[in-house]
Amino acid sequence: MVKRWFVAVIVTLTGVLILLLWLFAAPALWDYLHPTFPPTVVCQPADGSSVSGNQSGQPVVVAVVHASRYRERASIRFGATIPLGPQTTILCLLRPSDGSLVRRLDIGHGDYQFTRIVQVGDTWYLGGTNGSGLGTLCALDAQNGATRWCYANPASQSGEDAFASAISPDGRLVYIRTADAVYGLDAASGQQRWRIAFGRPTSVNAVLAVTSTAVATVGVTISASGVNPAQASMVGLSPSSGAVLWRRPLVIANPGYMQLVSDGAAFYVDGVSMQSAELSGRLYAVRASDGAVLWQTALHCAPARFSLTVDAGRVYYDDGGCTTDPAPIPWTFFAARASDGAVAWSLHGNPVDTGPLTASNGIVYITGAFGADTSVMTTTFSARRATDGALLWTTPLVHTGGGLVQGAFVVGGVVCQPEYGMGIDGYGVSDGALRWRACAPAFLPFSVSVGATKAPIIRPLWPTPFARLTATGAGSA
User: Fewer CB atoms inside 10 Å of the end CB: C or N, the chain?
Assistant: First the structure.
């Protein structure tokens, strides 16, 4: 009897001990292994160092980091995962020469996902989607990060492809393209100046570009006589009033993804037909002042996203590589003269392993891999001379297949390459040497020492999965 009583006591005590461990010790161990993070740890160097002195007006690299104020933590007691604290967005302003922190701004907007940022004067413009998934553009004071206004897609059509924006060359007006209209907004207040109704874009995405003489978009204009909704057309609008200046039909029936850029004098637009009987398209150069077609060239396949670029008298685009073409050509990257469309030089490559490109000051920077093919783990980042395509330098990249944020950009003598949502690499424009990396700690092992003759400066500025890089750009402090 005593023995049974003793065993029962031991079993009971053991059960109570296990219960106490489950309720108190296990959560404490989880918290120790999965610490929470206050928002102040984002874009703060581990040693607390930052650039001192007045940096006002100096060029900066801007990293847009979306963060939860605290990491999600599993609740051992209830077997669920619960979020701790709200989310926020932080702008990290870095010095181009070495990636050191100049300034950080906590701008809020925790339920927004910003994927684009550009500075015009004393205003940051951030584009992306809001908490409802609608395309949104926000204007922020560049000095303190205060929100001046935000404009969400009034058509209530979700996704960024249904929403495009552009800013006038003088910075006074902002233009918005939605599924059914183009809007002209006052840049200072975000108030609507004018609106012109359009048919829904025939392409899968809204496109918009602006010069001093016209605002251009692609779609179908609503008119009394009616327009074939399957036929794309380009329209030039007055920047000040939205009045239609010219219309230009495009020989692209039922187009798929389209691209539209400008060099100030002309608009360049490309797209490919999605009709099963005609998988072909065109690249047009259209004069901004009157919509006259300056030149055009046929395309065999759908262009790759982000491939259409114009700079210093060159238009860059791609074509080929599709299996549906009855007379297929290999995938080719073209550099054409902006004046007449004549090809100055070209390169053959792999469309899967070629991504966003950037052209600046007579140099074109070509980034490999969109991240769509996760089996492609090694690619290159290279610089070529715009006049003849001569290779200036090339450097290997190694990525994790996480998806590229955007193309490279040049600021303060450094070309910055956002690598797949995890970090920003700063390369010397002249030699392609990797000078610094601002990144998440988990990204440190990737490509730091690949081909490097001098160890770069490493700055782990945002912990993952607590924080994630969503957009990058250039500006001034």
Answer: N
Q: What angle do CA 81, 83, 87 make, to 5 degrees?
A: 150
- Residue 270 CA to residue 261 CA, distance in Å, equals 9
Q: Which pTM was predicted? A: 0.82
* Whether the predicted pLDDT of 254 surpasses 80: no
Residues forming a β-bridge with 60: 475
Per residue in 66-94, pLDDT tens?
Answer: 887 665 555 544 444 455 567 889 999 99
Cα separation values, 271 from 26, 27, 203, Å? 57, 55, 8
CA-CA distance, 93 to 72, in Å (whole number)? Answer: 27
Hey, what are 322's tokens? 């599709």
The Cα 177–Cα 205 span in angstroms is 10
| DSSP code for 23 | I
Segment 91-120, tens digit of pLDDT: 999 999 999 999 999 999 988 999 899 999
Pairwise CA distance, residues 316 & 309, whole Å: 5
With b for 16 or more beta-carbon neighbours within 10 A and e for fewer, the 77-93 pattern comes to: eeeeeeeeeebbbbbbb
Report which secondary-structure segment, H or E, holds 299.
Answer: strand 293-299
CA-CA distances (angstroms) from residue 357 to 229, 333, 382? 32, 11, 10
Classify strands 434-439 and 457-460 as parallel, antiparallel or unpaired. Answer: parallel
The residue among 446, 436, 433, 440 whose CA lies nearest residue 461 is 440
Encoded amino acid at 130, one letter: N
- Judged against a pLDDT cut of 70, whether residue 449 lies above it is answered with no
Q: What is the mean pLDDT of the chain?
A: 79
- CB-based burial, 346-384: b 16+ in 10 Å, e otherwise: ebebebbbbbbbbbbeebbbbbbbbbeeeebeebebbbb
Contact 449, 456 (CB under 8 A): no
Quote the CA–CA distance of 347 and 336 in Å, as a whole number.
Answer: 12
| Rounded distance between C-alpha atoms, residue 351 and residue 331, angstroms | 6
- Is residue 221 predicted with pLDDT exceeding 80? no
Residue 60's Cβ-count burial label (10 Å; 0-12, 13-18, 19+) is buried
State the average pLDDT over residues 346-363: 76
Q: What is the pLDDT of residues 229-249, one digit of tens each?
A: 456 788 999 999 999 999 998
Which three-class secondary structure string do you get for 200-257? CCCCCCCCEEECCCCEEEEECCCCCCCCCCCEEEEEEECCCCCCEEEEEEEEEECECC
Residue 351 has what DSSP assignment? Answer: G
Q: Which residues pair with 233 in a beta bridge?
A: 219, 249
